[in-house]
Every structure is written in structure tokens, then in C-alpha cells.
User: What shape does this take?
Amino acid sequence: MIRCPNRIMAQVFAAVLGFAGAARAQDCARLTQLTLPDMKVLAATPQSAGPFAVYGAADKAVSAPAFCRVQLEATPTADSRIGFEVWLPAAAAWNGKLLGIGNGGYSSVLDYPAMADGLGRGYAVAGTDQGHTGDDLRFVVGHPAKLEDWADRAIHVMTEGAKLVVRDAMGRWPARSYFAGCSTGGFQAMAETQRHPDDYDGVLAGAPGYPRIALSASFLAAWIANHDANGAEILPRSKLALINRSAVAACDTLDGVKDGVIDDPRACRFDPGTLLCRAADAEDCLTQPQVDVVRKIYAGPHNRRTGEPLFPGWDPGSEAPGGDPRLGWTAYIVGQPEPVRLELWKFWLFGDPNFDWHTFDFDRDLAAASARLPLMNAASPDLAAFRAHGGKLLMYHGWADNVSSARGSIDYYESVERAVGSAAGTQDFFRLFLLPGMGHCSGGPGPDKFDAIGALDDWVEHGHAPDVLIASHSTGGQVDRTRPLCAYPLAARYGGAGSTDQAANFACAPSAVAAAPDAGVWLKRMQAGAVR
Assistant: This one.
């Protein structure tokens, strides 16, 4: 046997890798020559394995395997400019599937960390800028097509374009296609199931802001509740941790476990009046006006004329999850100089940059918004076409969500169950998971990490419907608690023995919490085409 020196072998190996790398670069670069309907490829660039600078910032790099980054622009209408990217893994690393990634808020930013995670799992991944640039809602002024791009068309166009790019680059269509998003991404996920049921085989909808009109009205109502007639704030940020500690102390053990987490806020009867100041205002108590504000926020917005609920209120435990105001009501209610998403009413509904929030009518104007901006709501319970396609929908929501209550997801799930006609028929293609103590999409004192994409893929690919998902919570990078997540309407219950921080000591059981008399009334009226 002739033995080659290690130095020579290294040179040969490097030459082979260099040739392969050059070939990959050529294969990637040729994608700029693609001819696609109403689309053009702006760039196709090979990326080496390692850090990928997020949005061009090296200090925000995410780790990714080698891939081909394809940047495209779609022009489905004369006034549309929908930017999107398709990331293609090496052919040997591709699992044969496509993963579409959703957005957050009204931002045009692609979720590169989520795309990198999907790429690392072997998927070809895609993300879009929703058809505009920035986070300023003025982008629809004079451009009605861009509203439709944002609310519906961008994800659908991205999906069609991504499948074509994959087909050309990999030589075959994706065997399966999935979509994953939270918050606005959850809204996009639900819009896909309802409006484009053939786009995806599996859809992951986290904390879905699917009734955008009612959700935005709830932000406005809560902000108004926390300000007096002169616009002065009533409840300060400094008292949120106090309210949160008190709510958790009152309701933590209702599930039989003392773990610093409210298991199901629907069972919580915490009264902020117990914190009423006995004398002067102080940091360890609430004034009567502050007590009234907290009660209004918990109750949620109501029609001022009929008294009927318009959207679920914020739940006990969401004020400052884990004692951190940044995860709580400061995001949309407390400490905000003006109502969050005020631009929606100014520019999307009234077309008046000088619109005064004092004049908003929660009866007349909310009805007008739903009629004029129908694509802003993805609330239809009719998922028959998605179900017939073989689609699977996995939804999740944190009980300590500071943006929208998990009760909204329960209301939607139950509306689909009514449309299907049976619980078993609904569970066949739609599963909902609720996470005690989790904030908006992640964070909070409860377990918030679980493999939702893996569970969805397994359900679609192998028919293994997820009855239980195991979630974990970490502190300082170390897992310190695990807990089973049970498919609604079941909930995790402690068996009475062993550590309450170990999922193995819990089992799924029927929830003992009864729905409130007016639960889902707001959604039923929305789905029936009436807001009031």
C-alpha cells in the first residue's frame, strides 16, 4: 500500500471540497436566470456554513449550514413589490420539504433566526417582507394593493414562488410544505388555512392575532382605560410587578401545584381591590382609580351601547410575567405615549392623519372597520377545504400572553368544532395547546420551549397526532422545569408524587374549568358578519 503524507491528503481533500464548493456556487448563481411568472430573481448567492449576519449586522449573526440564498421580488399587481427569500440547503442535506416562515407585527423584517433553524432541520425555507419596508403603517396610504399584499397576498405569492425555485434547484417539487408563525405569523397561518388551503400540508399557528380589527380595538380600549380625560396615565409601570405577584399568589395553587405559575387564568378569581391603599398612594398598593383600571383590562373591551364583549381581556398573570414589566402590559397599555396601532385607525380606516382617538366609537367604527377591511380578520371557522386537502393545523398560545388572551384561541377552536360537528372530527386535523406561564410566543416563568415543527411534521408525514408535547423552561441556559402540554380540552395534572418540575409526574386530564357564559360571543358575532 502506498501511504500518502497527511499533507498531501489534506491538499487533495481541499481540492475536492473546492471543486464541490465551486460547483455549488455555479448551481446557485444560475438561479438568477430563472423566468418566473410576475417574479424576478434579484440575487442568488452561495453562503458558507457558519455565522450569517442578520440584516447585515455581524453582531447579530445566526449560525446556519451552507446554503444558497435566493432573493426575489414579486409584482402580482402594478403597485405590488413583494420581496421574499428562499434558502436552499445542500442537496444532500435537504429533507425534501419546504418551510414557510411568518412575520411579526407589521414589520417587513424576515425572521432570519427562524429561517436558520428550519434550514438546520433540513428544510428549504422561505420568508417575505409582506410587500413593504419598515414598521410604519403609512405604507398603505395611496396604495390599497399593499394592504392586500400585507393581509393576504404576500405569503401566498411567496409560497408559490418558493415551490418553483425549489423545483428548479432541486429537480423536484417539495414532497411536503409547512408554514410556521407566531403573533402576526399566527394570523398569516390562519389566513393560509382559510383562503389558500392547498398551499401547505401542515400549519403552525402560535398566539394568532387572527381578528386584527378586534385585537387592535382592544389595545385602544385598554389604553383609554388607563388614561384620564386629560390623557394622564393612571396605572404606572412601577406597580405591574406588584399586581402580578398578588395575582399569582392568589391563583398559583388552584391546580394543586405551587410553582409560581397560574395554570388556567379562567379559574382565577383574583380581585385587584385587595390591593387598595388604606391611606395615601404608595408603591405597595393601588388607588381606587388604579384598581378600576386593572379590572377593566381584565374584563376586556365591551360595546359601549350594548355591553357585549368585543374581545377577551388580558388574563391574570400577564401583567408582568415572572415580575418583568417588559414582558407584560408595558408593551401595549402602560407607559405608552399614545394608543398602540393608532396608525391603523388613522391611515387604514379613516384616512385621516389627524384622527383623534377620543372620537372613536366602539359600536359604529368597529363595525365599519370590519366591513371595510375584511382581510384583516382571518376568523372563518370553515376549514373544510384545508381538511379535505389533508392539512393539519397545530395552534399554541401562552396563558400569560401580554398581547392577546389565549381565550381567543380557545374561542376559535370551539367555533371550528361547532362547524365540524364533533370533537373527534376536529381533533383529526386541528390540535390546540395552551402553555401556563408563557408570554407572547415565548418567555415567562412557565415552560416555553417545545418542538412544534417536529410534532407537526410527524403528524402530517406519519399520522401521529400529537396528544402531548413536552415543554421545558430554562434559567441561565440550564433546563430547570419540564411539563407536558396536553391537547385541548385536556390539561396537565400533577400525580401527587415526585418533583413538580418533571413532566413524567404529570398526566393529561379533563379540565375542571367551565367556560364563562359570554365566552366566544364576540367571535360568533364576528363570524356571523356583525360586530354589534
Notes: Residues 32-174 form one domain. The longest strand covers residues 39-47. The chain has two domains: 32-174, 209-448+455-465+478-532.
